[in-house]
Amino acid sequence: MARCVGYKRDGTPCERIVGALQQYCYAHDPARAEARKRNASKGGRSKPNREILDIKNHLKELTLEVLSGAVATAPYAVANQLINARLRAVEVERKVREQDELLERIEALEKQAEAKPGRSRQWEA
Ligand SMILES: [Zn+2]
Predict the structure, then answer these.
(1) Closest CA to 11 of 28, 23, 36
(2) What is this structure's pTM?
(3) Distance linking the first and last C-alpha atoms of the chain
(4) Which of 46, 54, 88, 104 is deepest in the core (most CB within 10 A)?
(5) Largest CA distance in the chain
(6) Which residues have beta carbons under 5 A from ligand 1 (an ion)?
(7) In this predicted structure, what is the pLDDT of residue 38?
């Protein structure tokens, strides 16, 4: 079976299996770079990282304030619950984005399979 000739971020070969007429997998195909960029920005890949960083900073501040002992802790307990709820929302968002990306990749594979007469049967085997 043919393997992608691309390289992963760490410099090791990709090794994803590709169609017989292809050199690259979806992630490394230079012809798909634009589409990948669109998908990445649409999914806002960097956004959750910023959001999580924001949450962590917030947690650090709250923890330091509580540990200083100078304040009532009840409001902080509520703040902690809200932060947890926000973390769950971020996690759900990530999962949905992951599923969307997978669906797009599956659709791309299906289109490739359809575009090659006589090769579509390999998906039925
Ligand atoms: Zn690849």
Answers:
(1) 28
(2) 0.46
(3) 15
(4) 104
(5) 74
(6) 4, 6, 14, 16, 25, 27-28
(7) 75
Ligand 1 midpoint to CA 13 (Å): 8
Give the pLDDT confidence of 73-97 residue by residue, as tens digits.
888 889 889 999 999 998 999 899 9
The first and second tokens of residue 92, run together, are 């759900």
Annotate the chain with DSSP letters as a single string.
--B---B-TTSSB---B--TT-SS-TTT-GGGHHHHHHHHHHHTTHHHHHHHHHHHHHHHHHHHHHHTT-S-SHHHHHHHHHHHHHHHHHHHHHHHHHHHHHHHHHHHHHHHHHHSTTTGGGGT-
CA of 69 to the centre of ligand 1 (A): 53
Q: 14 and 28 in contact (C-beta within 8 Å)?
A: yes
